[in-house]
Amino acid sequence: MKNAIKLFGIIAIVAVIGFSMAACGDGGGGGGGDKNLTGTITINPSGSVEIGTKLTATYSGTESVSFQWKxxxxxxxxxxxxNPNEYTPTTAGSxxxxxxxxxxxxxxxxxVTTDLPDAISLTKDEWADGELASSGDVNWFKFxxxxxxxxxxxxxxxxxxxxxxxxxxxxxxxxxxxQLSAASSPLSRTVTIGDCYINVTTSYSTGTxxxxxxxxxxxxxxxxxxxxGTAWIDATMPSSGEQWFKYVASADAAxxxxxxxxxxxxxxxxxxAQIYEDAASVGNSVSLSNSNSSPLTVTNEKMxxxxxxxxSGTNTLYKIALTTSPMPPDATPxxxxxxxxxxxxxxxxxxxxWFKFxxxxxxxYIHLSPGDLTGADVQLYDVTTGAAVGETKYLSGSTLYVxxxxxxxxxxxxxxxxxxxxxxxKIGVTASTTPPTTP
Length: 439
Known about the structure:
By secondary structure, this protein is mostly beta strands. It has 1 helix and 36 strands.
């Protein structure tokens, strides 16, 4: 009998504990109470939306609730009390929001699914037009990768830069969101063979641009091989306003890129060049014109790309050359006798003329008698190595000479570039500040 009483008592205690636990339970939600929230939780837009679409969750009740975003039932980040509450999905999936408050049963919204949108199909190595009309605008492009390494290329139009994010066919991000501009290297991404999507946005600017993809670091369109030589190569700028050249270095060397306007109607007199070593850009873009040459230091067996871009207009005809000499292919230097003035005539403003002398001491002074010229830039080069000696110096007015440290007995070039004007002038070299003599 006593045992039966004890058993009855234990059962009663267990029943009381069980009742208490049920009464104090969280009601199936995260609020930890048995009261119902008075409002509803909705997400706008609803249903199915594109990846990158901003979702706004709103709770309509008076209670102060916490919002917890979830993707495929797993929490995303930490909860927040901001109402309305925003989140922008960057991958495909099913998104919900759960709201909770102390003493209340939690509520979960209907799911919103995100997926990859309809996109503009890209053809390998061909440019496609894009336009972002507002800061919140988004463009989507699609291509089929046949290799695991792909390159994304950008060409500026009225829009100078964009942000790109690559996705695989399942809506998973591939790499980080990256800014591309005219000076950017083609963007390399390791992908899974199959369909890939490119999301293009802008932070604040608007305008037009072009985009392309390639399976190799071979820019979209035709790439022309360059070799080191002594002759100009005739080139015609395509309507895209951008042309590519490539060079494989056969030795460590200091080279020069030369540019010259074409002849006749459509002559292109000015352009920009961006240099790439393998898949990385080298420095900033440089200007190209009849009056300057751009140095290029190369390393044996490396691949170099030169992107020539038209800054404006529609002119197309120009010439390009790659040489070991700082002097353009068709230039012939005029010999200077140290200590004696050399008469010369500059035929066109913005042009250049070349002179050559053999140093008679370890310090030489380059003198200019401007004559018809307002002034001129002078630059010294070592004939043997092609290296510049000192910086370019503008001579005019009261500054009509510049000294340079050289090696006696070695040959040097002088490049003279006038400031706009044309006409006659004199150039000379001495061992002191004393001007040369008239022959």
